[in-house]
Amino acid sequence: MSTSNFTTAILVDQTPKEAFCAINNVRGWWSEEIEGKTDNLNEEFIYHYRDMHRCIVRIIEVIPDKKIVWLVKDNYFSFTKVKSEWRGTKINFDISKHINKTKISFTHVGLVPAYECFDICSNGWTDCIQNNLKNLIITGKGQPTSKEDDGFDVIPFVTGC
C-alpha cells in the first residue's frame, strides 16, 4: 500500500511575494467560511463546510515569499468512518523561482492513499490549488467555496501583503 503524501504544483508568472500573499488569503481561494486570521505565525483558523467537514488549522511555519506550513490540530469528517482523518497532518506550501516563473508546490503531509477520504480530499485539493489558488494569484480572483448563511460568524480577512 502506498504511503505517499498528496502533492501538486503550479507555475505562475507572478512573483513569489504575490504567490505568498495569495496563499495567505485563504478566503480568496479555499473558502469564504474561514473563521480567524490566516496570515501570521501561530495564528489559528477554522474551516467549515456545512455539516460535512470542519478543521482547526494552526500556522506553524512562515518564511516570507518562500514557505508556509499549517498543522491540522483537529478535524471532523461526517463521511468517513474515522471522523478525525487529517488530525495531526501538515499542509506545506513551498514557493520557489523556476526559470522565469514562480513555482508553488503544495504537499499535504499525512494525506495518504490509505485514508478513506484520500480520493475526495486529493481531488478537492487539486481543484483548490490548480484552479482557485492559481486564478487568485494570476487574476486576483479565486473561486472559493461561498459563505453559507448558517449563522457561522466570519472574522474579516486582514493582511499585511
Secondary structure: helix percent:
10-25%
E-strand count: 7
H-E string: EHHEEEEEEH
Spans of at least 5 consecutive residues whose pLDDT stays below 50 are 149-161
Q: Would you tell me the structural class of the helices and strands? A: alpha+beta
What's the CATH class of the domain at 32-139, please?
Alpha Beta
The number of helices is 3
For the sheet with most strands, the description reads: 7 strands, antiparallel
Fourth-level CATH superfamily of the domain at 32-139: START domain
CATH architecture heading of the domain at 32-139 = 2-Layer Sandwich
The strand line-up of the biggest sheet is 1-7-6-5-4-3-2
Categorize the overall geometry.
globular
Please tell me how large the radius of gyration is. Answer: 15 Å
Chain-averaged pLDDT: 89
Question: What features would you highlight for this structure?
Answer:
161 residues, alpha+beta, Alpha-D-Glucose-1,6-Bisphosphate, Chain A, domain 4, 7-stranded antiparallel beta sheet, 3 helices, disordered C terminus
